Amino acid sequence: MASMAAVLNKTPFLSQQPLTKSPNLDLPIAAVSFPSKPRRRRGVVRSGLIAPDGGKLVELIVDEPRRREKKHEATELPRVELTAIDMQWMHVLSEGWASPLGGFMRESEFLQTLHFNSLRLDDGSVVNMSVPIVLAIDDEQKAGIGESKRVALVDSEGNPVAILTDIEIYKHPKEERIARTWGTTAPGLPYVEEAITNAGNWLIGGDLEVLEPVKYNDGLDRFRLSPADLRKELEKRGADAVFAFQLRNPVHNGHALLMTDTRRRLLEMGYKNPILLLHPLGGYTKADDVPLSWRMKQHEKVLEDGVLDPETTVVSIFPSPMHYAGPTEVQWHAKARINAGANFYIVGRDPAGMGHPVEKRDLYDADHGKKVLSMAPGLERLNILPFKVAAYDKTQGKMAFFDPSRPQDFLFISGTKMRTLAKNKENPPDGFMCPGGWQVLVDYYDSLTPAGNGRLPEVIPA
């Protein structure tokens, strides 16, 4: 990792959404979509860093001189303990990824998000907001709050981490929330089972004051840049266009082809210094996704091996949990990147999608995500970059654009095949993934080898 230090000095290595089919299905993972041309909004392509939603970043971290006072206040308030996913959402809110949202949603914000995928501001303008950012409590917690208008939010060890003020408690309509967010109430939705099914029957919203910046102490905090941090870095680099790429899988050379050619096209459009924001998702992901620490190590190797140019790439962790809610969720992914300064967003087949939890098919139409983004309320300022397909070209020994006139020359490596190769310590075709990045995958799956008793070990951080 020492050789990476020089790269990291130039390239903030920040936080995933693959341009692939569901890892639960034996469908192409080596195929990626490639931008044909940007989908322009209202005939205008904006340059430079666009303004955050609502006009300014809403940062909710208490100023350092007031932190001791606020921590003391928190000790005297009713308490609500946060789950790991609640903490991730608090992190998202605290740094302004959900600007102009000022805290966990009250009922009016929740209903607008659920039914309109947007919020109407006091001035009449509309910003996109497609996934509810809410905090659930149970009957006992509700009773403990009583008539108080403020509560302390505490971590799993009971330490105060935030104060929620001017609170509103309202019913948690779980079935309606699930149906509207995922378009189904079928059993087996990962986020639902993790964060909703067993959650309390009430939601509590209010204005959020986070007592200090969120840290995970997992060796990756230096890669977690806030929207404000990102904007400073992008301005420092003189970016006149920022194109964001979300992923939750390792980067293969098809992804790299997509990203490097996108930059070429932006240069052809007249931009002088387009910067790539490679932005892997760092919050909750389902059990069969590669863990964040291993993905970040793999992304490091991609930069070390020169697959992506560190001078024109900023890599950072996006702290949001993953819903796997397809066209609904991809709006959130795009909206959050506006707040970080991106004015272009790359979107491919089945963004934020997954296999149906019950039936053997995709949960969402593969093209609906990019179509929805092109029409979504509140995203008019964002230029959407749709794709065409790239795959492994056997005649060239590398990832290339798919040519329908010679389909026999192209290889689509499924997610199942890629995992099987890595688990068996076999190599994919030369040119599919950089050697250093592939070795990280081999090492990860090797760490999952069953022990002598046949039980799988706990996932080992990279």
TrEMBL record:
SUPFAM superfamilies in alphabetical order: Nucleotidylyl transferase, PUA domain-like
Keywords, sorted A to Z: ATP-binding, Chloroplast, Nucleotide-binding, Nucleotidyltransferase, Plastid, Transferase, Transit peptide
GO biological process: sulfate assimilation
Organism phylogeny: Eukaryota, Viridiplantae, Streptophyta, Embryophyta, Tracheophyta
Gene3D superfamilies: HUPs (3.40.50.620), Sulfate adenylyltransferase (3.10.400.10)
UniProt-listed PANTHER family: ATP SULFURYLASE 1, CHLOROPLASTIC, BIFUNCTIONAL 3'-PHOSPHOADENOSINE 5'-PHOSPHOSULFATE SYNTHASE
Predominant cellular place of this UniProt entry's protein: plastid
Protein name (database record): sulfate adenylyltransferase
EC category: transferase
Organism for this UniProt entry: Raphanus sativus (Radish)
Assigned EC number: 2.7.7.4
Pathway(s) it belongs to: Sulfur metabolism; hydrogen sulfide biosynthesis; sulfite from sulfate: step 1/3
Pfam families per UniProt: ATP-sulfurylase (PF01747), PUA_2 (PF14306)
CDD domains per record: ATPS
